[in-house]
Write a structure and sequence with these properties.
The chain has 314 residues and is of the alpha/beta class. The protein has helices at residues 48-62, 76-79, 94-102, 108-128, 132-151, 220-233, 250-272, 276-280, 295-312; strands at residues 6-12, 15-20, 30-34, 39-42, 66-70, 89-93, 162-164, 167-171, 176-181, 191-195, 200-202, 238-240. The chain is 41% helix and 18% strand. The strands form two sheets. Strands 1-2-3-4-5-6-7 form a seven-stranded mixed sheet. Strands 8-9-10-11-12 form a five-stranded mixed sheet, with no helix packed on it. Strand 5 (66-70), helix 2 and strand 6 form a beta-alpha-beta unit. The mean pLDDT is 96. Bound molecules: zinc ion. Zinc ion binds at residues 73, 75, 186-187, 205, 214. It catalyses: 3',5'-cyclic UMP + H2O = UMP + H(+); 3',5'-cyclic CMP + H2O = CMP + H(+).
């Protein structure tokens, strides 16, 4: 069942995670759920060719075609593979659907130009970097961008046709799933898939395992509220995260703590009078040095620092 892009990890009875292999070019986890009479896939990874393998794997594991695909949010590493599920029904929140629709058709030239630029800047970052953990993270990013670059000419935007606001229930003969949204935290609109019978939650990027969460253009305050509400409302033993390995509900607490500490850290930095570059030189927030994708820390810091500066100057 495993391939170069993802490993299949069983989360619970009838639920599997397709966990992206770092450095393979693949980014973003997906999940497969066997509802008995129908099969659901959650998210489609960043690459159409890994999505084709995902569909094949789902059909093999459940012995059925994939009836529904849920997109947890609009980020490319969760929706780029949609085009491999043309005979399935795609589902997302209204917002996520609108965001994808507003992006229009894939503009091959512009996208290639942007990714070429990104690859150049990652190459530059790598040549300046000494920290081995950071170098590994940048290397993973490079593999992802290079794989995406090659796939752009065949990339098509496929937009969900079934939308919901805060809750959609799909009942199968063996188990039921609840597709839930508590608004936007990581992105403008985030959905999760909850399987009550198996006490399992597929979180999209609201939760990642030991991976620096991506905050820019989201809302870290709302994100914390969403995670706390999920802890309160849902009985969760198993988490299939957006990035990293399958784990338990402690990973939700990890992300809450990270976001709370990050907000306090950046707020302190803003009032310190020291420059942004001074703070960036301090490296990753203490206690999170071993988390994956440490290069996202700088991006988070910059974005949050500047958002808070703007707020303070209002
Ligand atoms: Zn994301």
């Amino acid at each position: 069942m495993n391939n170069e892009y993802f490993t299949i990890q069983q989360a619970s009875e009838g639920i599997w995670g397709a966990i992206s292999v770092p450095g393979s070019g693949s980014l973003g986890n997906a999940a497969i759920i066997d509802l008995g009479d129908l099969t659901v896939v959650v998210d489609t990874t960043n690459l159409p060719h890994s999505a084709a393998l995902l569909r094949h794997t789902a059909e093999q594991l459940t012995n059925k075609p994939v009836k529904y695909v849920v997109n947890t949010h609009f980020h490319g590493d969760h929706v780029n593979g949609n085009q491999e599920f043309m005979s399935s029904e795609l589902i997302s929140t209204v917002w996520t659907r609108d965001l994808l629709a507003d992006m229009g058709e894939v503009n091959i030239d512009v996208m290639q130009q942007n990714i070429r630029r990104l690859i150049t800047s990652l190459d530059h970052m790598r040549s300046q970097e000494r920290d081995p953990h950071m170098l590994t993270g940048i290397g993973y990013d490079l593999s992802v961008q290079r794989a995406l670059y090659d796939t752009i000419p065949s990339l098509r935007r496929v937009i969900p046709k079934i939308t919901f606001d805060d809750k959609l229930v799909i009942r199968g003969t063996k188990r039921t799933i609840e597709v839930l949204s508590y608004g936007g935290g990581h992105s403008l609109s985030d959905a999760v898939v909850y399987v009550p019978e198996e006490r399992t939650l597929i979180t999209g990027d609201l939760v990642s395992t030991k991976t620096i969460p991506v905050i820019p253009y989201g809302n870290p305050y709302a994100w914390i509220r969403i995670l706390k509400r999920m802890q309160q409302d849902l009985k969760i033993d198993t988490v299939v995260p957006g990035h990293g390995d399958i784990s338990n509900s402690d990973r939700i607490t990890d992300v809450i703590h990270f976001l709370e500490k990050m907000i306090a850290y950046v707020a302190g930095a803003v009032t310190s009078g020291q420059s942004e570059s001074y703070w960036l030189e301090q490296g990753v927030l203490k206690g999170y040095e071993d988390w994956h994708l440490p290069q996202y820390f700088r991006w988070n810091f910059r974005w949050l620092f500047n958002s808070m500066l703007v707020q303070n100057n209002r």
